[in-house]
Design brief:
Blueprint (H helix, E strand, L loop, with lengths): L6 E10 L7 H5 L4 H8 L2 E11 L4 E5 L6 H8 L7 E6 L2 E2 L5 H11 E5 L10 H5 L1 H5 L4 H14 L15 H14 L4 E5 L7 H18 L2 E6 L2 H7 L2 E6 L2 E6 L1 H6 L4 H7 L27 E3 L4 H9 L5 E5 L5 E6 H15 L11
């Protein structure tokens, strides 16, 4: 099973239009996007994008329509060629790959899950799932065994002989995910994969992705315009606006330390208890913790800790690391105080000079 590969994007620019490279220097010198279009009829889609995506993590790229997020994800497998910049994946510069090497890279190292499902209507579920394996030349019987295993994993047991039109939207997206996972690619590219789904189905799909990722440790690049989805899924989040990175960090960074007024408006109504981790507010671990006191894992949210305490007779929970060793303690008073403080900060007036929309 292939685990994830690191992705390093450095100083990436993309200009759509004729002879785009001739205007790179002007962009670097501060020529605005609107002015570039007015003078030259060109569209600046990505402006000096630099992101380090760790192996085995979920990297969310978030932004509204026109922010450049879908353009960015299509650079990772070179469906779009950059105007300038570098993309290094697992130590290999994909921009230097020839046609044959690039084809092999796309087939074996990356897989995509689309918003519109992109299933072949004349093929059954199992035939859709094994399509990529057939293209790679895998023997039909072996491809079917692999495909059936992933159909089971995504919860579609018994649906292998169905056609896409016989499935709900959520089920079709599960087929798309099974198809991507069956290729055993180290990088999974998901472009607004859940945006077309109903809210409850979307939540189920997010849960399934997190469960699978806990085992598979792929490098997942997940595109979304939804902040709640970004905060739930992302180990790291990048927020784009008009082709520029406005802020990047983990969910806590984004919510608690918004870079400007644009981000501040995004996160204003976020339930911080579902984002902030106990590690941020815990106190020192007691010297002799009571053996029956509830335990919460490092990395648990304040909401999860509050729930554990609410169902306990103890006034504190012990925060433990992956080895079950105590590293701190959390109480309802600490949680309430922290959330109250965060709420006050989020309602404070924006500082003078904050960016306007």
């Amino acid at each position: 099973m292939s685990e994830g590969a690191p992705i390093e994007i450095r100083e990436l620019y993309k200009i759509f239009g004729r002879s785009p490279a001739q205007n790179i220097d002007a962009i670097k010198s501060g020529l605005p996007k609107k002015e570039l279009h007015r003078r030259h009829g060109q569209v600046l889609a990505l402006n000096n994008i630099s992101i380090t995506m760790p192996a085995g993590k979920i990297q969310v790229v978030m932004g509204l329509s026109g922010s450049g997020k879908s353009t960015l994800i299509r650079h990772i497998n070179r469906l779009i060629e950059p105007t300038l910049g570098s993309i290094v994946i697992d130590g290999r510069n994909i921009l230097a790959m020839g046609e044959l090497e690039l084809r092999e890279f796309r087939r074996n190292r990356t897989a995509m899950v689309f918003q519109k499902f992109a299933l072949l209507p004349h093929r059954t579920v199992i035939e859709n799932v094994t399509f990529g394996l057939e293209v790679r030349g895998m023997q039909k019987g072996k491809a079917r065994d692999v495909g059936m295993r992933w159909i089971e994993r995504v919860g579609l047991h018994g649906f292998d002989a169905r056609y896409p039109h016989e499935l709900s939207g959520g089920m079709q997206q599960r087929v798309g995910l099974a198809r991507a996972l069956s290729n055993d690619a180290s990088i999974l590219l998901m472009d607004e994969a859940y945006s077309a789904l109903d809210p409850l189905i979307r939540t189920d799909m997010q849960t399934m992705l997190l469960d699978l990722q806990a085992e598979l440790r792929k490098t997942i690049v997940f595109i979304t315009h939804d902040l709640d989805e970004a905060l739930r899924l992302g180990d790291r989040i990048v927020v784009l606006r008009d082709g520029l990175i406005i802020q990047q960090g983990d969910g806590q960074d984004i919510v608690l330390n918004p870079a400007d007024d644009y981000i501040r408006r995004f996160v204003k109504d976020v339930n911080r208890g579902r984002v902030v981790k106990v590690d941020r507010v815990m106190q020192a671990a007691p010297q002799n913790p009571e053996g029956t006191a509830p335990k919460v894992r490092s990395g648990a949210t304040l909401d999860a800790a509050a729930s554990a305490l609410a169902h306990s007779a103890f006034d504190q929970a012990i925060v433990v690391d992956a080895g079950d060793r105590p590293i701190g303690a959390i109480t309802l008073r600490l949680i309430t105080r922290a959330l109250s403080s965060m709420e006050s900060e989020s309602n404070a007036p924006a500082p003078a000079g904050a960016a306007a929309n």
